[in-house]
Structure formats: C-alpha cells, structure tokens
Amino acid sequence: MKTENIIEAKSKQFALRIINLNAYLRQEKKEFVLSKQLLRSGTSIGANVKEAECGQSKADFYAKMNIALKEASETEYWLELLYESRILPAHAFKSIYQDCQEILKILTAITKTQKINPEE
After folding, report:
1. Crossing angle of helices 58-84/33-53, nearest 10°?
2. Which terminus, N or C, of the chain has the lesser number of Cβ atoms within 10 Å?
3. pLDDT digits over 30-64, tens only?
C-alpha cells in the first residue's frame, strides 16, 4: 500500500479549490485576467510536485520542487491582489490563503532540506 504524500495530496486539493475559485470569479465577478493567472499558477503547484515525484535525479527533484515553490509564491500574490482589490471577499480569501501559506511552508522545508543534502 502506497503511503500518502502530504504535499502531493495538499497541492491537488488546493488545485481543485483554485479551479472552483476561478469559476466563481469568472461567473459571479466577471473577472477574467487575474483569475486566469491564479488558475495557471495555482494548478501548476501540484503539477510540478507530481513531476518531482518522478524526477530522474535528486537535482531534478529539487528543481521541480523549487518551481512548485515559486508557483505557490505567485499564487499567494494573485490571491492578495484579488482580496486587496475587493474582488475576492474576505470569507473566500481567508481559507484558501491559509492553505496557500501551508503549502508554501511545506515546499520551503522540502527545498531547504534538498539544498542542504543534495546528494542524499
């Protein structure tokens, strides 16, 4: 039985939330530019994590996880812009932003560990 990969599971759940948020922003708020950026970066996190799991080397794993970290940071930025511009209401922002922060912390820990121990 395969053990659950926490970052893989969390990034996939986050991507699903981002997809639903994108639909809400497009349908209810008629916002198409920032929501598209958010969709791209928010779903890219999990895609890069998944790619890292099949990395050809430790360096490849680190590179993909680092890209996932960058995408999570970009997603954080788009969420902040949507909230601070009053497009995204506080109740919708708070929970998804917390999830983004959690993913950022996990990815930061993974990339720091890999950077310290690149040969392991």
Report:
1. 160
2. N
3. 999 999 999 999 999 999 999 999 988 989 999 99
Residue-wise pLDDT tens digits, 80-115? 999 999 999 999 999 999 999 999 999 999 999 876
Domain span at 66:
6-116
Q: Mutual orientation of helices 90-116 and 58-84 as an angle, nearest 10°?
A: 160
Asked if the model's pLDDT at residue 76 lies above 80, the reply is yes
- CATH assignment at residue 52: 1.20.1440.60
Q: Give the integer Cα–Cα distance in Å for 70 and 94.
A: 21
- Asked whether residue 96 is assigned to any structural domain, the reply reads yes
